[in-house]
Design brief:
Elements lengths: L2 E4 L5 E4 L1 H21 L2 H8 L3 H7 L3 H17 L12 H17 L2 H9 L7 H10 L1 H17 L8 H21 L7 H19 L8
Antiparallel strand pairs: 1-2
């Protein structure tokens, strides 16, 4: 199956199955060695392709790295829960969103992408911006759109939904990001659920519209 990786300024690059094979190999090598140490030779060997085939698909290591970051963000984004703005039980929708976010941050994919991009973000600000816009930024925008819908129906009162969306995401995932970065044990399932519930309750109390009720 071919994959589609979007490029800047609206360009779309259609990747053939061989390119997917190369991206899978690049993910392994970049995770093991990091961007600086990873070589196109090692990626070609991991993918089981010739260097000529590798360079026929990607101009250089940075081009391949960018394609991988975009593809990973799109893959993760496809699993992001988008609350139903028409649902009456809107607090339940926030709980589903929180559970989805905690599942993503406690899995392997999100921490893996962080480990790939963070060490080189300062040297490749354009790639860091791409990662933010197509990864965390997309989640913030989708969450902000839902929060805006709750404001329009009088359930919440939020001056800036985008700021509130970022606050919500950090509230329900902040402990996972820190524990992951420090390689600390994760919370128990019960503790994790309580963390999410109390964070949502705090968020709703702060942004509740006067006279509104939580379903």
């Amino acid at each position: 199956m071919s994959v589609v990786v979007s490029y800047g300024e609206g360009r779309i690059r259609q990747l053939r199955p061989k390119a997917q094979q190369i991206l899978d190999a690049a993910r392994v090598i970049f995770l093991e060695a990091g961007f600086d140490t990873a070589s196109m030779d090692a990626i070609a060997r991991q993918a089981g392709v010739s260097k000529a085939t590798l360079y026929a698909h990607f101009e250089n290591k940075e081009d391949l790295f960018e394609a991988l970051i975009r593809f990973e963000c799109q893959t993760i984004g496809a699993t992001f829960y988008r609350p139903d703005p028409g649902a009456e039980a809107w607090a339940d929708e926030l709980e589903k969103l929180a559970a989805n976010l905690r599942k993503l941050f406690s899995g392997n994919d999100v921490p893996a992408v962080y480990r790939i991009i963070v060490p080189v973000a300062a040297r490749f600000p354009r790639l860091a911006q791409i990662f933010f816009e197509e990864g965390p930024g997309a989640a913030i925008r989708d969450t902000a759109a839902y929060l805006q819908s709750l404001c329009e129906t009088g359930r919440l009162q939020i001056p800036d939904p985008e700021i509130a969306a970022e606050q919500f995401i950090f509230l329900v995932t902040g402990d996972l990001e820190l524990r992951g970065a420090l390689s600390l044990p994760r919370r128990s399932a019960e503790s994790s659920e309580e963390m999410a519930r109390s964070s949502i309750a705090m968020f709703i109390r702060y942004y509740s519209a006067p006279g509104s009720s939580t379903p």
